Automatic annotation (TrEMBL):
SMART domains: Ubox, WD40. Keywords: Transferase, WD repeat. It comes from the Eukaryota. Signal peptide: none annotated. This is RING-type E3 ubiquitin transferase. GO terms for molecular function: ubiquitin protein ligase activity. It catalyses: S-ubiquitinyl-[E2 ubiquitin-conjugating enzyme]-L-cysteine + [acceptor protein]-L-lysine = [E2 ubiquitin-conjugating enzyme]-L-cysteine + N(6)-ubiquitinyl-[acceptor protein]-L-lysine. The lineage of its organism: Eukaryota, Viridiplantae, Streptophyta, Embryophyta, Tracheophyta. Residues 400-475 form the U-box domain. The gene is LOC103702597.
Length: 1341
């Protein structure tokens, strides 16, 4: 018979689904039948049924049944979450796959139903599928049943009752009448025997349907070429107790066979003997019905009625070829008590006959057999007609022995089975040979045996084997070393046994001769380790030279040989032999699943492999991978360190393994990290990054195996999610071309993982680098990446759409954004659709966060900085700096030269993106964001608020095309409500910034005036936090708001450090304060509310510490001292450790530090410039310098003569900002302090002309302002809003930078000279060091 093809299976099952989905009555009927089936449906299945039924029925009212994807996905998730399957859940899952246009998955699910509940599947759900796919394979079973039934009925053929019944039938009575007549007249023994046969028949039918369903699943799974399906399974025909049938001599079978097989009686199963009282079942040509043909298996049974004998019994065929026609012939009885039986007089429908011939051709085997004739059981009956169905003979004949009947050592059927104390059963001769070799363990479990005395024969198992052999006389015979004579009929008679030393060897090398046989014998039997090791090397040579011939593969895959290899792993210490052994086991495991089963049967074997891998035998990881251990087992193995070493090492696959060790390690590591709920995943990722394993995983993106590429993508994606700082390394070294080429070849799940990987990769903290990566993603693939993303966007899961849309939109913006683009339209539509769908809050939040990330600014860890940037626009600099500190590991000054080009690129991208989002469908996105602002989910509300504020603010910077009015209509009332009632000040500031954008046009001002009272009240509260609120107050009150700025400073703490002398230097960084003292002490303080906690102190300078400086990152501290040294300290864990000492040859004053140089004032004239790489030079030797400031490569010097000079360190050129003055009454007029801030130079001098502090433009040296304080200034500190001037009398004056007016005064506790001052980065705390050794801190409120 021709083998079943995947196409044939799909066609038959697809036709069933098309019919079921197009006919509501049929669909409701099969769902009701499945629901009534025990066990009772669980709540999840009923909920899934509700989703499916409501949606399909509603959609079918206007069009073919095509429910919404969201309902299908919800139902599918419910069903997949069930711990146990039920017939209803399996049926629902198959219907969902069919509706989602997954024909292969739908077919597999329906076949699962046939395997789970065959009776339900063939009777009530899919009888057409059973008839088309199963029935051709089961025809021999029906033949056999007909023969058994005929034998029972003919056992008393002389009975007048049966003769009368035959007469009734011959006289042309109806089939039902004939059946009733036959039932009423047969003997009690015959009726009981028939009922027993019918029950047993249903059990056999169920068993065969289950086996064949599994086979059809294998056929479908082999369609992609990833695996090869086995041949069709043999039929199970003799699962009975042996009464009747072909046991002509009345030999009774043992009771153990019934117990082992576990027969069960079915109810409502497919039974050709029974039919409903209201339906006459005709298995023949169905020519008597004028209606549509009934399905063969539609046989519900409540009130059974016997079907006439002639409907099921085979009739002799004139040509001996049409077994199907014989089966369905509607003629009279097939057997008679004489040789003159009459042939059928009725004709077979030609169409039905042709169809049945086609079904017969679908039998699993094409092997032709000779006809087999059976002797009659009684002399009164004639011989049975010849069985021309060769497939039936094959099914009745060669049955595969059950695996429990096979010895694991010899692979032969047991002849003398013995069961050890470990529960394992072996052939007596084989296990005796094992023990004679000195072994004292069980070969399978390797458990220590307490006794080497073999127990008695397992007679129960032996009787079961004998009974099975009697029922299967044509089954595969026992492979014996010395086969008995052909005349010997009793299989249980004693046989001549060969030498015990040959049992295991011959079983292991069956079919193999020569040197290989000897090598296997040495491997399995030798007591000498060296001899066994040599055998392994010889076997490897045979393996390579034979090119993996099937005979050698079969010989080496036997359990005895595999166990021999495992013994080598346990005992050998030769690295080469161990590698060769692992190579052979890996080759065998990759080609034969039975080897994997043998290796995983004993836990100690796997533990041995893991131990070898941890000791450095890297090839073992391939074998561990092939064993496919579970996730839990991988965690228990604790192989992370060994996996990392294998991944990091260079490729050295000298043996030519089926899988490279590094590849196998990648696969195992990917499997470990794939679990989202894995608690130790962050720890593993941290180790991968710290040990630089990520760099070794990156090359796998270019691997030849697509699976390795996808696994590497998953590992790198998990690393970026757990620790975003590694994305810079990945972006720098990854080649994305191979991954983009593989995108079209992988599954939907893998495609989305690639999309997530690319989306995370373009979240670098440099805009220009992000755009370079986007160009690579857009252009490097063989196929258009944008087109593939667009196709994927048509049918993703709800929580996948925002990620896909975000990446597609970024790729589209690489071209001119003002042009119409289908990619852009589809991407933004997808985002809006997710924002508008409150039924999926996770997708709604993801869409809002995607819009935030589209702003284009990210931290070093890949977190979006949109909120921080918008707060900066709103004037909330305190909140801005706090967010920047939280998101970035290093602090980069805003005026850094490296940021200029980057800032320009970021601004250009932000403008393009804002225009694309806001102009879509004339501001349709604002309507969706307004809906998100009404959400009770705090995360959704916050993300939508930031997105809406950002886009509204950007409208004020873009040309007005009318979109601003659309945004105002959608959002103005929402923003006013937030400004009025929000609890968090930052939320109020965001709403204020958005409302500020509406003030640019008259309509906006008019709408704001409708809420002017609430707005003014909120702005008066906010003006203490942001200047923008003050400006808006002026605009809304026509400049009449006379409120003044009030700056309040509250003293936080005062610390007495007088034991260490004067406080000569002080600096702040984040929440830490560093102070330098006149006795050489350096202290580290930690600020916490109203306290300063000393966390570290060191005194390595021998003289006063005159100055302190920090690197931009805050990782290094520089100290200058009068002991003529500069020390470099490493800042870590609230402590400082000296790592470098530089001898300056001069006392160090006013130390300032850049990236590669340091400048300080020596004891004499000029300024010394030190290069960290070595070398020192003296600049400006004609001037005595008093103070220094170093900004962007330019050195500003305040001199004793009152002059201020600028030195360009790159070119060595000088410039004069202020000329020196002559001494007044013989006294010097020095510049006491210089500071550069926001492009302005502040210089504190003696008040000769009434202005003690002058402000110069650092670019053109022009004087832009001056201040006349009431004190003599000796030190200075500048914040974003204020200027602090410290005097020699302990007074600190506070001036407004913008208005140049004094806003406050502070007084130190002891009226001592203010030596140094510092302001923290957030301008919240002022720290002062005085000459009497006190440190004081004030907070700005």
């Amino acid at each position: 018979m021709t083998a079943v093809t995947p196409g044939a299976v799909l066609r038959a099952i697809t036709a069933f689904f098309d019919e079921a989905l197009s006919q509501p009555d049929l669909r409701h009927r099969i769902l009701s039948a499945a629901r009534r089936r025990p066990p009772s449906p669980d709540p999840a299945s009923l909920q899934a049924l509700s989703f499916l039924s409501q949606d399909v029925d509603s959609s079918a009212a206007t069009s073919p049944a095509r429910p919404s994807p969201s309902a299908l996905r919800a139902a599918e998730k419910l069903l997949l979450s069930l711990p146990r399957r039920s017939p209803l859940s399996v049926l629902l899952l198959s219907l969902i796959h069919a509706l989602r246009r997954r024909p292969a998955a739908a077919a597999l699910a329906l076949l699962d139903l046939f395997a789970l509940d065959p009776a339900l599947a063939r009777d009530d759900v899919a009888p057409s599928v059973f008839e088309d796919l199963f029935l051709p394979h089961l025809l021999p079973l029906l033949h056999w049943f007909a023969d058994q039934r005929a034998r029972i009925l003919s056992s008393d053929s002389s009975s007048p009752a049966l003769a009368a019944a035959s007469a009734v039938e011959d006289n042309g009575c109806s089939e039902a009448a004939a059946a009733v007549s036959l039932l009423s007249r047969m003997s009690g023994g015959q009726a009981a025997e028939l009922k027993k046969l019918e029950r047993e028949y249903e059990d056999v039918l169920d068993a065969n349907a289950r086996v064949y369903a599994e086979y059809l699943k294998e056929v479908l799974e082999s369609a992609d070429g990833s695996r090869q399906a086995r041949g069709p399974p043999q039929l199970i025909l003799r699962m009975f107790d042996g009464e009747g049938g072909e046991n002509e001599e009345g030999v009774e079978e043992e009771e153990e066979s019934q117990e082992a097989i576990g027969l069960r009686s079915g109810q409502g199963r497919y039974n050709p003997l029974w039919a409903d009282a209201d339906q006459s079942i005709d298995l023949s040509s169905r020519q008597h019905s004028s209606k549509s043909p009934k399905k063969l298996a539609n046989l519900p049974s409540l009130y059974p009625q016997r079907v006439p004998i002639h409907l099921l019994i085979r009739q002799p065929s004139s040509d001996g070829r049409d077994c199907a026609a014989n089966l369905i012939s509607d003629s009279g009885p097939a057997f008679s008590c004489n040789d003159n039986s009459v042939d059928s007089s009725s004709e077979i429908d030609p169409d039905i006959k042709e169809k049945n011939i086609d079904q017969a051709l679908l039998q699993p085997n094409e092997i032709q057999h000779h006809r087999h004739e059976e002797a009659s059981a009684q002399d009164t009956c004639s011989s049975s007609p010849p069985m021309d169905d060769s497939d039936s003979i094959l099914a009745l004949g060669k049955q595969t022995p059950p695996k429990d009947f096979i010895c694991p050592i010899t692979s032969n059927i047991f002849d003398d089975p013995v069961t050890l104390e470990t529960g394992q059963t072996y052939e007596r001769r084989a296990i005796q040979e094992w023990l004679d070799r000195g072994k004292s363990t069980c070969p399978i479990t390797r458990q220590k045996l307490h006794s080497t005395q073999l127990p008695k024969t397992n007679y129960v198992l032996k009787r079961l084997i004998a009974g099975w052999q009697e029922r299967n006389p044509y089954s595969t015979p026992i492979r014996m070393e010395n086969p008995p004579s052909k005349n010997v009929q009793d299989l249980n008679t004693p046989r001549h046994l060969p030498s015990p030393t040959s049992v295991i060897t011959q079983a292991s090398t069956d079919g193999i001769t020569g040197d290989l046989r000897i090598a296997i014998s040495h491997l399995c039997t030798s007591e000498i380790l060296g001899e066994s090791e040599m055998a392994v090397l010889q076997i490897e040579q045979f393996w390579r030279e034979s090119r993996m011939e099937p005979e050698i593969l079969a010989a080496l895959s036997k359990p005895a040989v595999v166990n021999g290899f495992v013994e080598i792993l346990f005992n050998s210490v030769n690295p080469h032999v161990l590698r060769v052994t692992v190579f052979l086991l890996s080759e065998l495991a990759s080609k034969d699943k039975s080897v994997v089963q043998t290796l995983t049967r004993v836990d100690s074997d796997v533990e041995c492999m893991v131990a070898l891998f941890k000791k450095g035998l890297v090839e073992v990881v391939v074998l561990i991978y092939l064993l496919t251990p579970s996730w839990e087992n991988l965690i228990e193995m604790d192989m992370l360190e060994a996996l990392m070493m294998t991944i990091k090492r260079e490729e050295e696959d000298l043996l030519g393994m089926c899988v490279k060790p590094k590849t196998a390690s990648i696969f195992i590591l990917g499997h470990i990290l794939r679990r989202e709920d894995h608690k130790s995943a962050p720890t593993i990722v941290g180790v991968l990054i710290s040990e630089r394993v990520v760099e070794s995983v990156i090359p796998s993106l270019e691997a030849d195996l697509v699976g390795e590429q996808i696994t590497a993508v998953g590992i790198l994606l998990r690393c970026m999610k757990e620790d975003g700082y590694c994305r810079n390394i990945i972006a720098d070294k990854a080649e994305l071309g191979p991954v983009l080429e593989s995108f079209a070849m992988v599954s939907d799940v893998d495609q989305f993982e690639i999309i997530q990987f690319l989306s995370e990769l373009v979240k670098l903290n440099r805009r220009k680098l992000n755009e370079q990566l986007l160009h690579i993603i857009k252009d490097e693939g063989v196929f258009s990446t944008m087109h593939m993303l667009l196709v994927y966007l048509q049918s993703p899961l709800q929580d996948q759409s925002p990620v896909v849309a975000g990446l597609l939109l970024q790729l589209d913006l690489l071209v001119e954004p003002r042009k119409i683009s289908v990619y852009r339209e589809e991407a933004i539509d997808a985002l809006i659709s997710c924002l508008r769908n409150p039924d999926f809050p996770s997708a709604q939040l993801l869409a809002a966060e995607t819009i935030l990330s589209l702003q284009g600014s990210f931290s070093s860890s890949g977190k979006p900085l949109a909120r921080a940037i918008v707060l900066k626009h709103a004037g909330m600099k305190k909140s801005y700096r706090a967010l920047m500190r939280a998101e970035q590991s290093t602090y980069v000054p805003e005026d850094s030269e490296d940021n200029l080009e980057e800032e320009k690129a970021a601004n250009d991208w932000e403008r393009k993106m804002a225009y694309a989002l806001a102009s879509h469908e004339f501001g349709l996105l604002f309507e969706a964001l307004a809906g998100g602002l009404k959400s009770r989910n705090i995360e959704i509300f916050s993300a939508c608020l930031v997105s809406a504020t950002w886009l509204t603010h950007m409208l004020s910077l873009l040309p007005d095309t009318g979109i601003r009015g659309a945004a105002r209509v959608c959002l103005l009332k929402q923003f006013v409500s937030i400004l009025k009632s929000a609890r968090h000040t930052d939320d109020k500031a965001l709403a204020m910034l958005a409302l500020r954008s509406f003030m640019h046009d008259p309509e906006g001002l008019h709408d704001l005036n409708l809420h002017i009272k609430d707005i003014l009240k909120a702005l008066r509260e906010l003006k203490k936090s942001t200047v923008l609120a003050y400006e808006m107050l002026k605009l809304l009150s026509d400049g009449q708001d006379s409120s003044v700025d009030i700056w309040n400073h509250k003293e936080l703490v005062q610390v007495d450090c007088s034991t260490h002398g004067e406080v000569l230097a002080i600096i702040c960084f984040k929440n830490r304060i560093f102070s330098g003292h006149s006795d050489g002490m350096i202290k580290v303080w930690e600020g916490n509310e109203n306290l300063l906690h000393p966390v570290h102190a060191t005194r390595e300078h021998s003289k006063a510490v005159t100055s302190l400086a920090l690197s931009n990152s805050g990782e290094k501290l520089y100290s200058g001292s009068l002991d003529k040294t500069v020390r470099v300290w490493y800042v870590r864990d609230r402590q400082i450790h000296c790592v470098e000492i530089h001898d300056m040859k001069d006392p160090v004053h006013n130390l300032t530090v850049a990236n590669t140089i340091a400048c300080f004032i020596p004891h004499g004239a000029g300024v010394k410039v030190l290069s960290w790489n070595g070398g020192c030079k003296l600049l400006n030797p004609s001037k005595y310098v008093r103070c220094l400031a170093l900004v962007q490569g330019k050195l500003y010097c305040g001199c004793h003569d009152g002059s201020i000079q600028e030195v360009d360190l790159a070119t060595g050129t000088f410039g004069t900002i202020q000329s020196g003055n002559r001494k007044l009454l013989g006294k010097a007029n020095p510049v006491h302090a210089v500071q550069v801030h926001d492009g302005l130079l502040y210089a504190a001098c003696t008040s000769l002309d009434g202005a003690a502090v002058k402000i110069w433009s650092a670019s053109d040296y022009s004087l832009v302002g001056s201040i006349s304080p009431t004190v003599e200034v000796r030190s200075m500190a500048i914040s974003t809003e204020l200027l602090y001037l410290g005097s020699k009398t302990g007074v600190v004056e506070i001036w407004s930078k913008n208005k140049l007016t004094r806003v406050g005064t502070l007084q130190t506790a002891t009226n001592s000279k203010v030596q140094c001052m510092a302001v923290d980065a957030d301008a919240e705390i002022l720290v002062v060091g005085t000459s009497d050794g006190n440190i004081q801190a004030w907070g700005l409120t």
